């Protein structure tokens, strides 16, 4: 005889972001340092990307250390303890251990005794994917408090001699605690993929090929076809962001902040124009100081808006992550 | 069907809106990069706006060949024909 699984006894609740945490590595790298290796100019970099500085992590600032620092800050700001955390999800593409996961290291570092811990890979859209998972876990009742972290050390994969990408990427980590709420605080996710662009953003060599390189092993690099990525991000992604606003049952006029993945200031500007955002919406421009930090950029940028008092707690922020795959995820959230 | 002049003036409105260049400067012989200072990312925006306005498809590989305003107008004329 086969048994029957018992029905779920515990209904979940609505979910919201309770708090954010940020880790910005200590070393600030100006365009001048990047320009030592590429034929370009400060003016060109600023006009094409909006980037003035980025931060590079030092040897001890690993993906898991940065993730743990951001997570611990978010847990403290939520007035919780690590023991209250049921699940830790780390979105990253740059954790250098195949196993154990960065999330397991975060659980160990912050002292969460028994939290479920796992990583997800959705490139620059990873944090927004994680947020969607966390919200659903809380709605269904499989977790009460979930830490979602985006953490990246892109400087490890940077081709410092490539004038198309050397200035773009930076390092850092951003985290959110997602928990129960008496009202909806995280709107429905609009997500998907367009694999016709699977080659547009890529690691140039898989690890086995990188080890077997003629002339000896070398680190793999991130590569990107700028103009097609720009077209997809600026226009197709503006449509996905608009769908997330519709799905949440609000209008762009109701938004207080627009926090797109900080890929390039020109993409942010084009998306904001396509969305017809009114002037009352604060647009995240953390990329100017932070560079493109992939999965970390959305929580870092929202944290910056809050710390700079450009947005207030309780307002609505439209988030969208988009990146290699091509994959994307967008949702409207209540600002913690 | 739109005339060459109608396409040129429609394109000029788009370039003006995206890159802030005076409409009267946007003439057929002008180079997007050398004369009008439209960089590659703005060019992508111009192309997408032109696709919507004129109901044509301009793949990325073809964008590289559009050096002058006249090249773009001729491309759009051929596509809508």
Question: Can you offer a commentary on this structure?
Answer:
The complex is a heterodimer of chains A (336) and B (81). Chain A has 336 residues and is an alpha/beta fold. Chain A folds into two domains: 14-181, 3-Layer(aba) Sandwich (Peroxisomal Thiolase, Chain A, domain 1); 190-334, 3-Layer(aba) Sandwich (Peroxisomal Thiolase, Chain A, domain 1), CATH 3.40.47.10. In chain A, 31% of the residues lie in helices and 24% in strands. Chain A has helices spanning 31-34, 42-49, 63-77, 102-110, 126-140, 207-211, 226-247, 265-275, 287-290, 297-307, and strands spanning 14-23, 27-30, 53-56, 87-91, 116-120, 146-153, 171-181, 190-193, 201-203, 222-224, 257-260, 282-283, 316-323, 327-334. A five-stranded mixed β-sheet of chain A has the order 1-7-6-4-5, sandwiched between helices. In chain A, strands 8-14-13-11-12 form a five-stranded mixed β-sheet, sandwiched between helices. In chain A, a hairpin with a 3-residue loop joins strand 13 and strand 14 (327-334). The longest helix of chain A has 22 residues, at 226-247. With 81 residues, chain B is an all-alpha fold. Chain B has a single domain (4-80), classed as ACP-like (Non-ribosomal Peptide Synthetase Peptidyl Carrier Protein, Chain A), CATH 1.10.1200.10. Chain B is built from four helices and no strands. Chain B has helices at 4-19, 40-54, 60-63, 69-80. Chain B is globular and about 30 Å long. The termini of chain B are close together. The interface between A and B is small, with 11 and 10 residues.
């Amino acid at each position: 005889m086969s048994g029957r699984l018992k029905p779920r006894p515990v209904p979940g609740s609505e979910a919201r972001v309770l708090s954010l945490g940020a880790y910005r590595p200590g070393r600030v790298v100006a365009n001048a340092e990047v320009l030592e290796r590429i034929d370009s100019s400060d003016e060109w970099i600023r006009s094409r990307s909006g980037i003035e500085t980025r931060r590079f992590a030092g040897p001890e600032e690993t993906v898991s250390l940065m993730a743990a620092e951001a997570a611990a800050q978010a847990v403290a700001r939520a007035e919780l303890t690590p023991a209250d955390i049921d699940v830790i999800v780390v979105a990253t593409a740059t954790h250098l251990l195949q196993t154990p996961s960065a999330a397991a290291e975060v659980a160990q570092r912050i002292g969460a005794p028994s939290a479920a811990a796992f990583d997800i890979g959705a490139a620059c859209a990873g944090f927004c994917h994680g947020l969607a998972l966390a919200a659903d876990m809380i709605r269904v009742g499989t977790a009460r408090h979930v830490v979602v972290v985006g953490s990246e050390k892109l400087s490890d994969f940077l081709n410092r001699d490539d004038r198309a990408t050397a200035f773009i990427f930076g390092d850092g980590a951003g985290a959110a605690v997602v928990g129960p709420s008496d009202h909806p605080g995280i709107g429905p996710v609009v997500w998907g993929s367009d694999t016709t662009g699977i080659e547009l953003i890529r690691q140039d060599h898989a690890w086995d090929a990188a080890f077997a390189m003629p002339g000896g092993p070398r680190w793999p690099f991130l590569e990107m076809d700028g103009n097609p990525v720009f077209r997809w991000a600026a226009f197709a992604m503006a449509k996905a962001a608009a769908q997330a606003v519709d799905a949440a049952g609000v209008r762009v006029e109701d938004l207080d902040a627009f926090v797109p993945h900080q890929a390039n200031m020109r993409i942010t500007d084009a998306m904001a124009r396509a969305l017809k955002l009114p002037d009352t919406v604060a647009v995240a421009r953390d990329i100017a100081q932070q560079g493109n930090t992939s999965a970390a950029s959305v929580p870092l940028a929202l944290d910056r808006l809050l710390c700079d008092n450009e947005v207030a707690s309780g307002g609505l922020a439209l988030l969208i992550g988009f990146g290699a795959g091509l994959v994307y995820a967008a949702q409207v959230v209540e600002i913690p | 069907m739109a005339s060459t002049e109608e396409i040129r003036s429609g394109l000029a409105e788009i370039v003006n809106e995206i890159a802030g260049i005076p409409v009267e400067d946007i003439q057929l012989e002008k180079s997007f990069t050398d004369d009008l200072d439209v960089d590659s990312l703005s060019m992508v925006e111009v192309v997408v706006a032109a696709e919507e306005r004129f109901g044509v498809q301009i793949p990325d590989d073809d964008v590289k060949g559009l050096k002058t305003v006249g090249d773009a107008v001729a491309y759009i004329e051929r596509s809508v024909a």
